[in-house]
Amino acid sequence: MSKLPYRSLRTLAKTYGPLMMVKLGSIPYVIVSSADAIQELTDKDHDVIFSGRPQWKSSDALFGGSTDIIFSSYGEYWRQMKKICMVEVLSQRRVNQFRYIREQEVEHLVGMLKDASKNKTAVDLSEAISTLTNTVISRAAFGKTYNNQQMSLRRAVDILAQFCFQDSFPILGWVDALTGFDSKVRKVSREVNDFLDTVIDDHKKRVVVVAEDDSHDGSDHVERQADIVDILLRVQKERELEFNFTDANIKATLLDMFAGGTDTIATTLEWVMSELVRHPTIMKKAQEEVRRIVLMGSERKSGIDEADISRMEYLKCVVKETLRLHAPAPVSLRKTSEDVKLGGFDIPEGTMVMINLWAVMRDPEIWEQPESFVPERFLAEPLDFKGQTGKFVPFGAGRRLCPGMTLALVEVELVAANLLCWFDWELPEGVVDLDMSEINSVVIRRETPLSLVPVLNSE
Ligand code: HEM
Description:
The chain has 459 residues and is an alpha+beta fold. It contains 20 helices and 13 strands. Strands 1-2-9-6 form a four-stranded mixed beta sheet. A three-stranded antiparallel beta sheet has the order 3-13-10. Strands 4-5 form a two-stranded parallel sheet. A hairpin with a 2-residue loop joins strand 1 and strand 2 (27-32). Helix 6 (99-119) packs parallel to helix 20 (405-422) and helix 14 (263-278) packs parallel to helix 20 (405-422). The structure holds protoporphyrin IX containing FE (HEM). Protoporphyrin IX containing FE is lined by residues 69-70, 82, 90, 256-257, 260-261, 264-265, 268, 328-329, 332, 394-397, 400-404, 407-408. Its cofactor is heme. Keywords: Heme, Iron, Metal-binding, Monooxygenase, Oxidoreductase.
């Protein structure tokens, strides 16, 4: 198995078919690699049975026994947690509420790039985008950024991607003590808990008027805009739940927002820009659309709002095509909750299942020129992100579908539109072709940072 397992598993599936049993470490996994199998797995007879998740040593330690949304087992507890997440934290209303944060941070990024463009030197766009996505989620979640302390969240997310003997070879679990994995997990878990306890305590102490709508335009006409911690504390106090929503649950939810909502958005933007730089005609077409809508209307605008974005049909296709080729989360991990049949095979209760989303989105049986970057394919076939066809599945499918997709898409589209509207982009001197190598960490990222020269658009 290579360092990019979704690629090796696709190669195996070409020989052994879309449903195969592979041992990863000493644990047997059913690997699912076709749209038909995904559709079957998420139909009404299968969805619940395939909605379990494997728990890891690190998820148990970091999320108090995997009690977050990403890692918790399927059941009433997960259902309640996901509902809170979707209704209270990631709903359209919330996405609108935090619009002013996205707009301010994008303005900041554009300002920085305008300054850099004066020197005609390359900027580390990966770093700039990563800072933006981190700041946006921090301000939405905590009301501000906590610079140094917040690094513990980064370390926690990184640990989830690290190899652990117990998860792959349960009989060798003791080796994790020797490699230092166990002590590292304990240390990071302590740091994260201490940090999030401080954040929650700070919020409990503040008695100020907070607004939970999108009335905040960045000025001070409400005393303070509610952030996600305020919202979760209000849920804890007011909402009638079938379980006791404790501070530990709030911490697990917050950690999920960071684990799910920073690197995924940043890496999508990196790949959008990488693909566009490699395809100048597509870049030009996308720029023309964005500039026509923003700069050539009856009143020429100095900023881009989300109403403009809703009209950028081609840009949306560029984002879809990027997510098809570069799914940030290339596989979805599941666990069966009872004996079940899939594609005619008997699968016992408790089986680990890996859905190779990446392979399905490059399957030559269902995509023309599957390896090529062709945004136009989505003009011809406007597939949505809900994964119901089993074919276009960057956010997964079924009950475990990603709840952060609305938030992710508005942020990706807003940043991309700004990068395309105000700048042309060039490769640094001496670079002829962009290296597109991938690295598998929490998400699939570029192996090398994306370094590009911004040239101010003079239109
Ligand atoms: C481009 C951005 C994103 C991509 C591609 C992405 C992709 C995914 C995928 C593939 C899954 C697994 C779905 C499955 O098992 O079928 C998932 C789950 C999840 N994502 Fe995202 N995600 C993104 C952004 C976000 C954001 C912004 C958040 C929150 C702020 C988020 C929070 C979650 C959570 C909580 C889950 C677990 C859902 C469950 O188990 O029920 N994601 N995501």
